[in-house]
């Protein structure tokens, strides 16, 4: 009986950590239907991301504009403007995910605007991409339309995030780098004791011009 109680307490603690880990303690909140009411032009091909991480190597990702077109447009636009170059992975939880993309490096910063959340609980039904290991998704606060520049890459399958966050691509090579990064030592706020630096992020759009990003909260 005592073992069962301890297991229940452990499971509760894990869920609390999960809810706190995505940006500003952003668990799923009621839908605003923000993304469902926005018309977005999608790229026709799958952009290929090259992410160079200092002392670790290169991670390659494929993005899926048919799943989350505006999210992809936003990430590609930021990446190819140099926005992510030199930023850090500021939150890392082993067995869950690594999170970066905050110019402040603390989990509260962004590009100065937000984008509509392209996921099911926000009224957007085209995105069925699951949060399996290697998938990249957008971090947000409790507001469903609050994502900006922060993203996270799954280091384990996390189905409780499905339909709650805008997943938009996945790692195609370098998953072993994600596995290495998730094991770094962190403080009580899940921030690495030594910076894990994103040296550069570039995206090959196969010659396509990236459509204008639909923005909110400017």
TrEMBL record:
Upper taxonomic lineage: Bacteria, Bacillati, Bacillota, Clostridia, Lachnospirales
Domain PPIase cyclophilin-type: 49-203
EC number(s) recorded for this UniProt protein: 5.2.1.8
UniProt GO MF annotations: peptidyl-prolyl cis-trans isomerase activity
PROSITE patterns listed in its UniProt record: CSA_PPIASE_1, CSA_PPIASE_2, PROKAR_LIPOPROTEIN
Described function: PPIases accelerate the folding of proteins. It catalyzes the cis-trans isomerization of proline imidic peptide bonds in oligopeptides.
Signal peptide: 1-35
Protein's recorded name: Peptidyl-prolyl cis-trans isomerase
A Gene Ontology biological process term: protein folding
Keywords: Isomerase, Rotamase, Signal
Entry similarity comment: Belongs to the cyclophilin-type PPIase family.
Recorded superkingdom: Bacteria
InterPro entries attached to this UniProt entry: Cyclophilin-like_dom_sf, Cyclophilin-type_PPIase_CS, Cyclophilin-type_PPIase_dom, Cyclophilin_A-like
Catalytic activity: [protein]-peptidylproline (omega=180) = [protein]-peptidylproline (omega=0)
């Amino acid at each position: 009986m005592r073992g069962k109680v301890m297991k229940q307490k452990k499971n509760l603690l894990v869920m609390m950590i999960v809810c706190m880990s995505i940006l500003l303690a952003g668990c799923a909140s009621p839908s605003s239907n923000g993304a469902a009411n926005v018309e977005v032009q999608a790229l026709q091909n799958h952009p290929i991301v090259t992410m160079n991480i200092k002392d670790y190597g290169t991670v390659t990702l494929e993005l899926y504009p048919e799943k989350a077109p505006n999210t992809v447009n936003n990430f590609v636009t930021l990446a190819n403007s140099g926005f992510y170059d030199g930023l850090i992975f500021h939150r890392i939880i082993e067995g869950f995910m690594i999170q970066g993309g905050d110019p402040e490096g603390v989990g509260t910063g962004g590009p100065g605007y937000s984008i509509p959340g392209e996921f099911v609980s926000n009224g957007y039904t085209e995105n069925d991409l699951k949060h399996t290991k290697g998938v990249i998704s957008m971090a947000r606060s409790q507001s469903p339309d609050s994502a900006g520049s922060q993203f996270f890459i799954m280091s384990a399958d996390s189905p409780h995030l499905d339909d709650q966050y805008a997943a938009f691509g996945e790692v195609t090579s370098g998953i072993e780098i994600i596995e290495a990064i998730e094991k770094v030592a962190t403080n009580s706020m899940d921030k690495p004791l030594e910076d894990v630096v994103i040296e550069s992020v570039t995206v090959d759009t196969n010659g396509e011009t990236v459509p204008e990003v639909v923005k909110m909260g400017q």
